[in-house]
Design a protein that fits this description.
455 residues, Neuraminidase, 4-stranded antiparallel sheet, 11 helices
Length: 455
C-alpha cells in the first residue's frame, strides 16, 4: 500500500516524477515521467537495525542545491534519516509524521521542519547542520506541517495540523507565537495553496462546507447543538472569514428564547419519553445551543447582519404533530444512536459531530418514520436554503457564514448546488490575526435581515 506521494524531479531530466513510500513493503520508490514506469529505490525490509522499520512518509526535494533529489525518510519508530547520510539529531524521540523544507532563518540555505506525532513537538533543523530548534512543544498529535508565509512579512512561518486538538495552528517566525488558523475535526493534512493560503484535509467529515457562485462564498458550519467545540468552530470561522452576512438556523420565536431551556418540538418529544428520538432531535436542530449564541454575539460585535433562515417553529411543531399521528410509536424505539456512550456525555457529543454518524441517524429516521423525516428535515432544508439564496441574490455579500445543525448541511449544500453554486476545495482564507473578541456592549442590537420564506 502506497502511503505517500511527492512530486519531484528524481532523475534530473527536467520533468516531474512521483516519489512514493509504501509502508506495507517498507519501500521507497518512484514513478518515472512520462511513461510512469515504477522503479524501486530501496526496500528496507530485512535490513540492519538502524534502517527504517515502518516508513510513513518521505520529504523528496533538492535540499543541497546539487540539482538532485534528496530523500528524508520519516519512520514511525526511528529518527528521520536521509537515504545517503546520518539520521537527523532528534533529541529523545522518533515517530516523525511529516516534514517540509524552507529557508527558516533567512540564510539562503534550505532548512527542514519535522512534525513528531508521539512527542507532540515540531522541530526545525538548520540546513548548515546545527542542533534542532523548537517550533512547538505542545502540538497535540502533530501530523502535518506546511512551510509558508502566513502573515505577509516575507519570512517563512510554520503551520501545523494538530489532530488531537482538532485545529490547524500557525506559528509565526520569529518567536513562534501561535495563531489558530482554523478549527477542523481531526485534520490529517495541511499544505500551502499559493501565497498566504492553505489547503487542509481531514479523514473525518468536515464540519464546514465551502461553496461559491462566483461572487459570494458560503461557509456552512454544521454543528452538534450541545457541543461546546461546535461553538468554538463557529467563533473561529466568523473571526477568520469576517463575513458580510451570518445566517442561523433560527426563526424569530426561537431567537427570543435562544438561551432558555429547550421547549417546542424538543420538549414535546421529551414528554413522550422517547429517549432515542430525543437524542436524534438534539442533532437535528431543536436545542438552541451555544453555537447560535456565539454567532449572535459575533454579529453584534462586528455589526454583521443576521438572517433568521429557519421556518416558523409553530409551523414545524404542527407538521411534526401531524407526522407523529401517522407513525407507529414502536418504530421510533428502533432508531439507534450507536455512537452514544452511556458513561460519557462529553464523548457522545463529540462523536455526534461527524457527518457520517449524523447521516446514519437521518437514514434510520427516513426509513422508519418518513413523514417525520419530511417534516423536520426536508421541508426545513427547503426553507433555509431558499432564504439563504434570496438573501445572497438581494445583497450579493462577499462572504456568508451559515450556522446550522449538521443534519441540515447535506440538504442545504445540495440545494445551493442546484442554484449554480459549486463546492470549493476545503481551504482557509488569508488568516485574520485576531484574539478572543470581547463581548458586545450591553444593549447592542442585532441587525436582522427579513427572511423571504417562513412556512
Amino acid at each position: 500500500m502506497i502511503n505517500c506521494l511527492k512530486a519531484v524531479d528524481v532523475d534530473g531530466d527536467a520533468d516531474v516524477d512521483i516519489a512514493y513510500v509504501a509502508q506495507e513493503d517498507n519501500e521507497l520508490g518512484w514513478f518515472e515521467a512520462p511513461s510512469w514506469i515504477r522503479r524501486r529505490i530501496f526496500v528496507f525490509a530485512g535490513q540492519k537495525k538502524k534502517m527504517p522499520k515502518k516508513l510513513h512518509a518521505v520529504l523528496a526535494q533538492d535540499l543541497d542545491g546539487d540539482s538532485r533529489a534528496d530523500f528524508l525518510l520519516l519512520d514511525n519508530y526511528l529518527p528521520p534519516s536521509f537515504l545517503d547520510r546520518p539520521p537527523l539529531e532528534t533529541r529523545r524521540h522518533a515517530g516523525a509524521r511529516d516534514a517540509c523544507a524552507a529557508d527558516i532563518d533567512g540564510d539562503a540555505v534550505l532548512d527542514v521542519v519535522v512534525a513528531f506525532k508521539f512527542a507532540d513537538e515540531v522541530l526545525w533543523y538548520d540546513g548548515r547542520g546545527a542542533q534542532p530548534h523548537t517550533v512547538c512543544s505542545k502540538c497535540r498529535f502533530a501530523c502535518s506541517v506546511a512551510c509558508v508565509d502566513v502573515d505577509g512579512d516575507q519570512d517563512i512561518d510554520v503551520v501545523v495540523a494538530e489532530k488531537a486538538a482538532n485545529r490547524i495552528s500557525a506559528f509565526v517566525n520569529p518567536g513562534w507565537d501561535r495563531i489558530e488558523v482554523a478549527a477542523v475535526a481531526e485534520p490529517d493534512v495541511v499544505k500551502p495553496l499559493g501565497p498566504h493560503h492553505l489547503a487542509f484535509a481531514s479523514r473525518g467529515d468536515e464540519e464546514i462546507s465551502h461553496l461559491t457562485n462566483g461572487w459570494s462564498d458560503v461557509y456552512i458550519v454544521g454543528t452538534a447543538h450541545v457541543s461546546n467545540a461546535s461553538a468554538q468552530v463557529v467563533a473561529s470561522t466568523i473571526d477568520r472569514v469576517q463575513p458580510d452576512l451570518i445566517a442561523v438556523e433560527l426563526d424569530a420565536k426561537r431567537l427570543a428564547r435562544a438561551t432558555t431551556k429547550p421547549r417546542g418540538v424538543g420538549g414535546f418529544v421529551l414528554s413522550l419519553v422517547l429517549r432515542a428520538l430525543y437524542r436524534a432531535f438534539d442533532i437535528l436542530g431543536y436545542n438552541s445551543g451555544a453555537e447560535f449564541q456565539v454567532a449572535l454575539d459575533k454579529a453584534r460585535n462586528y455589526r454583521i447582519p443576521v438572517l433568521l433562515a429557519d421556518r416558523d417553529i409553530d409551523v414545524t411543531f404542527q407538521r411534526v404533530s401531524e407526522a407523529l399521528k401517522a407513525i407507529d410509536p414502536a418504530k421510533l424505539d428502533e432508531i439507534e444512536t450507536p455512537f452514544f456512550v452511556e458513561d460519557s456525555l462529553t464523548a457522545s457529543i463529540e462523536l455526534m459531530k461527524t457527518r457520517q454518524n449524523v447521516r446514519a441517524i437521518v437514514g434510520q429516521l427516513k426509513d422508519l418514520a418518513p413523514e417525520l423525516y419530511e417534516a423536520i428535515l426536508v421541508e426545513r432544508d427547503d426553507v433555509i436554503a431558499s432564504n439563504l439564496i434570496a438573501a445572497i441574490n438581494d445583497a450579493r455579500p462577499r462572504a456568508v457564514v451559515a450556522v446550522v445543525g449538521m443534519a441540515h448541511e447535506d440538504g442545504i449544500e445540495a440545494r445551493l448546488k442546484k442554484k449554480g453554486f459549486r463546492e470549493v476545495f476545503t481551504s482557509t482564507p488569508p488568516p485574520v490575526v485576531v484574539g478572543a473578541s470581547p463581548p458586545p456592549p450591553p444593549g447592542t442590537p442585532l441587525v436582522l435581515v427579513p427572511p423571504r420564506v417562513s412556512s
